[in-house]
């Protein structure tokens, strides 16, 4: 069963805070329930109007979520979550995971079929069947999955932040598009310092570039709330000039 994931910084994001306070709680509640429905039904972020009506959506709440760029409005076809595949598992990913789990289950049963028969004959009691895959509890949201296989894989792949942490030219191009007014070097320095100071499982990540992108998005959300529209426009223009005139391919953030 897939989970609808919500980042722990969602409530302070620029998009959420742009929703009028008078309807913010109701709008976020609607957003959450609609996301839960889409995740369960594997619709990749699309929610039809009849479901929205059942969830208690009003034209005001729908408009607020669209204006906040959390939803895309498709009129009579309902709504679509903005950038669903960037934050949530897609239908194809979920179905692929299910197929892999079913295959693991089949192979486990094949390997242990004889053992189960022997136990039944010698003991006179049918032993409870365990198939190596936990079906009782739903898959936990990232990063707290409890499947032994997932944990073992995470131990092999997850690692602490690289030292030094390198910002490549491709990463700078992404930042210029997605967070054009942000001081990338300052945010990256604080990002690296924060994660070097962390310890335990939290300090180990599978994808540090994705973690860096999320950090910059949050910094940009926080910074933008403090700027006037004209200041935001000036910073965007300045960032564009700086990126266009700089031929830097990578930056080392020293430890």
Automatic annotation (TrEMBL):
Domain of life: Bacteria
Bias kind Basic and acidic residues: ranges: 95-105
Stretch list, region Disordered: 95-149
Sequence ranges of Polar residues compositional bias: 117-137
Protein name from the UniProt record: DUF1376 domain-containing protein
UniProt organism field: Microbacterium faecale
């Amino acid at each position: 069963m897939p989970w609808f994931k919500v980042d722990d910084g969602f409530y302070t994001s620029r998009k959420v805070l742009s929703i009028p306070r008078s309807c913010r709680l109701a709008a976020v509640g609607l957003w959450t329930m609609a996301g839960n429905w889409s995740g369960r039904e594997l619709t990749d972020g699309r929610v039809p109007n009849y479901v929205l009506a059942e969830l208690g959506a009003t034209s005001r709440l729908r408009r607020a979520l669209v204006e906040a760029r959390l939803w895309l409005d498709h009129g009579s076809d309902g709504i679509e979550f903005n950038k669903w595949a960037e934050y949530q598992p897609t239908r194809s990913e979920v179905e692929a995971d299910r197929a892999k789990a079913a295959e693991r289950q089949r192979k486990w049963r094949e390997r242990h079929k004889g053992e189960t028969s022997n136990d039944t004959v010698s003991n006179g009691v049918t032993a409870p069947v365990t198939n190596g895959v936990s079906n009782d509890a739903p898959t936990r949201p990232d990063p707290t999955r409890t499947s032994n296989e997932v944990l073992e894989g995470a131990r092999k792949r997850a690692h602490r932040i690289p030292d030094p942490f390198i910002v490549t030219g491709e990463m700078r191009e992404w930042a210029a598009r997605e967070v054009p007014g942000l001081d990338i070097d300052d945010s990256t320095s604080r990002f690296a310092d924060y994660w070097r100071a962390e310890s335990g499982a939290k300090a180990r990540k599978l994808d540090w570039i994705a973690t860096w992108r999320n950090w910059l998005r949050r910094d940009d959300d926080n910074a933008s709330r403090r700027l006037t529209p004209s200041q935001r426009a000036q910073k965007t223009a300045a960032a564009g000039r700086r990126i266009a005139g700089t031929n830097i391919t990578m930056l080392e953030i020293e430890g």
